[in-house]
Specification:
Blueprint (H helix, E strand, L loop, with lengths): L2 H6 L3 H7 L5 H7 L4 H7 L12 H4 L10 H6 L27 E5 L2 E7 L23 H12 L6 E6 L7 H12 L6 E6 L1 H4 L6 H8 L4 E6 L9 H11 L4 E7 L8 H13 L3 E6 L14 H14 L7 E4 L8 E2 L1
Parallel strand pairs: 2-3, 3-4, 4-5, 5-6, 6-7, 7-8
Antiparallel strand pairs: 1-2, 8-9
Helix pairs in contact: 3-4, 8-10
The protein binds pyridoxal-5'-phosphate.
The site of pyridoxal-5'-phosphate has 9 residues, from strand 1 and strand 2.
Length: 332
Amino acid sequence: MSSLNIISVRPQWQQELAQSISDPTELGAFLRLPESWTAQNQTARELFPLRITRYFASLMKPGDIHDPLLLQVMPNQAEFEQKEGFVADPLEEQSGDHAGILHKYKSRVLVILRGGCAINCRYCFRRHFPYQDHHFGRTQLQQLVELIQSDEAINEVILSGGDPLMANDDQLFKVITALEALPQLKRLRIHSRLPVVLPSRLTEELARRLQVSRLQTILVIHANHPHEVTNTLKGALARWAQHDITLLNQSVLLAGVNDSADTLADLSEALFDAKVIPYYLHQLDKVAGASHFAISDERARELEQQLRARLPGFLVPKLVREIAGEASKTPL
Ligand SMILES: *Cc1c(COP(=O)(O)O)cnc(C)c1O
């Protein structure tokens, strides 16, 4: 056998990723959406490209322009609206000293491990983020290690993005190994939407590597709607749970997607079926182009109250927002 055969074997998830949809017309045809609707919306791809896995597209209801999963990914002409208070960098992240390393909260340091993602969510607060400046290579890993060593208050590293699971297992193993060598660290957290849009990314190899780590591992997935919590995802997460990985979820409140108590309650129930505890429910970050997803604080609090009345406490996520410069997320 020649060595070329080895090179050609790409993991399943990378093959699926290569088949992603980036053309609104293609997504429209796949879902049999009205052509006029697709045509009028697709100009918004100039603001932020369309990107979606075929798996995630297959969860949408054909012919339904109000499908809650479609609304999260399809460019929309409403994104051209400029609304007071909605800005390019709502969390004032784009001025850090160390490229790709955000140390805003005392004990936790967040790393932009990979700029890209398998899905471009229209409400993404990093939709205008200059990711090209945030390559995380050997130099950045060294900087991260030095930052941690210089501050004994840091005991947890959060891998974020983009999406950190866009990195391949080899890259992740390098980062994990470097972090394990730092005795002050207790936990490694991975914040990723890939499990939801590409469940095949939850590989057995990665789970096993995390299980043998000295660091406690937490995977925070990002599902917004119960339709995202499929049997496929449940199966993949159940396997990861067997590797001693704590599973949490965070969601964003989105008008037209999940701004109803029924939907949010169903989401919590579906998550727990998948061994996931609902962690945060975020009020939308005011990023330019996403104002049509906003709901009022008053409505958000009302929804939270309705959830409390219906669910056990551990299935009610904390309703928070992020305010630039604060020492933690802020309860609403
Ligand atoms: C949200 C966030 C964290 C993690 O906050 P937790 O409340 O611990 O989940 C850490 N760093 C940054 C920059 C964040 O935005």
